[in-house]
Amino acid sequence: MIAFQYQAKSRTGELQVGLLEAETLAAARQDLRGRGLFPMSVTKAGSERRIKTAGSNKRVSKRDLMLMTTQLSIMQKSGVDLAESIKNVSRQVSNKRLATALNQIVIDIEDGKSFSAALQAQSSIFGDAYVAGIAAGEASGTLGQVLARLTTLLRNEVRLINTIKSIATYPVILMFVAGMVVNALMFFVLPQFAKVFRDLDKTPPITTQILLSIGEFVRGNFLFIG
Fold it and tell me: What domain range is 210 assigned to?
């Protein structure tokens, strides 16, 4: 018999932690279900494996999380084993922090933890809301549907973030264009106006005189103003 440590939830949602003996990991999980418990984590006592994750406690971007969840959702719909799906996704993601976290999640699942329990250990990367969504999907047996919903939510968040960035950039572009127009007016258009009035030996209107004076001042002091 092998000793296993477990975390499980009762039908009322109460978290229970303890030790039990069984021939195999599968038998240990079956034993817990027979007691009316939902296994969150089942591992051999004292055998937990960890990957070095130095500097990996920062949240990954919404875009990286969205791409990862999309790939995982597709694989789950195709009927690929969960641990194998996560392993495949970890090879495809470009974010090293995320890849390291996914590799640790695979190890935790192979050691008997549920997906949500493995994610909980990486909550600083994935966020509590993401972990809670996965836990709800596991508890209700609708993990595939939850992954699809999370994909949609994350995609909408990414679009919103991109829209906000575009809106924030737009005034900067307008200011740049306005600056170019003012420069063209001061250095090219106004001098031509002044030449026309001089050639005609006419006195320009007061508003035009003011503009011409401003233009002459700006051109004469451009280096100091700039």
Answer: 169-225
